[in-house]
Amino acid sequence: MLRCEAVGKRHGGGRWVLRDVDLRVSAGDVLAVVGANGSGKSTLLRILAGLSRPTTGSVSGRPPHIGYVPDRFTAHDRISAISYLTHMGRIRGLSASAARARGEHLLERLALVGGRNASLRTLSKGNAQKVALAQALLVRPDLLVLDEPWSGLDVSAHGVLAEFIDEVAARGGAVVFTDHREAITETHADGTYVIHDGLVTRRGALPARSRASTVELVLTVPPDGVVPDEVDWSALPGVADTSRRGGEVVLRVAREHSDAVLLTALRHRWSVAGLTGAADGPASRAAAKRPAL
Fold it and tell me: How confident is the model at residue 290 (pLDDT cuts 50, 70, 90)?
């Protein structure tokens, strides 16, 4: 699908941010890009998306429909979320009615707080991120490029984002994303590129066990009706996905961290409704239960 050959990037006469990058993204890939802050992850993603030109080397095979979510989505406009999405959809070739319908569908799935008519400048960071995700998916992307896409999202949206990634890959598209948490990259990515000192190396395809060595933990309000403490589940080590199902919280947790997460839940007065192995990959589960993207 897309190939970078000997790509290098520097700004003016400054240091080389990227050097001699050789990278291939094929249909159906879900790839993670990891590295320290300032290592060049965002620069590489902008090059893949066609928003930045490499200083040296070439990029070939870039597909026609690319969805991109930046690491920072500025949302200071008075325009409403749905008006913004309708406008962006028309820029990308959709009719006004199709763009609006598509935007409403995506915002409904993401459960935008305040609703579709909320002004962009009133949105929290997490809800602005939901609008950023929606604009990237208005036209079904052949390549979805996500820069720290989980940042700021609420619990329910974590699971929806995972579904979006699975849906793009299942249709033969490709996804490239960054995230600083190993549990996220191991759960969602088929392979990982590591950036260090401007050089990009492939860590290799993830073994089958990385997708199989997770458990699903279902938490609920205890039978005595005592309201449990709120917990930032996504911040706990090993938690890859979080979602809500009615009054329940559903967590996908790396098996080696499951005891610690379970203990945290019990300490915060949550009741355990279920604990099962999750041997099947996220794509197969999602394809069986969700509507098409």
Answer: very low
Name 57's Cβ contacts closer than 8 Å, sequence gap at least 6: 4, 5, 6, 7, 8, 20, 21
Retrieve residue 237's tokens: 């080590």
pTM attached to this predicted model: 0.74
The residue assigned the tokens 């879900």 is 30
Cα–Cα distance measured from residue 66 to residue 105, given in angstroms and rounded to the nearest whole number: 19
Q: For residues 17 and 10, is the Cβ–Cβ distance under 8 A? A: yes
> Each residue of 196-207: pLDDT tens digit?
999 999 986 554
What is the set of domains in the chain, with CATH numbers?
A: 18-206 (3.40.50.300), 209-289 (3.30.70.100)
- Among 4-8, 103-107, 154-158, 247-251, the least confident range: 154-158
Distant-in-sequence, close-in-space partners of 144: CB < 8 Å, separation ≥ 6: 66, 67, 68, 136, 137, 164, 165, 168, 173, 174, 175, 176
Spatial CA neighbour of 9 closest among 46, 52, 55: 55
Q: Residue 234 and residue 11: Cα distance in Å, rounded?
A: 35
Q: Return d(Cα 143, Cα 161) in angstroms, integer.
A: 15
For residue range 108-137, list pLDDT tens digits in order. 999 999 889 999 999 998 999 999 999 999
What number is the average pLDDT over the span 212-234?
82
CA–CA dist 214, 25 (Å, integer): 26
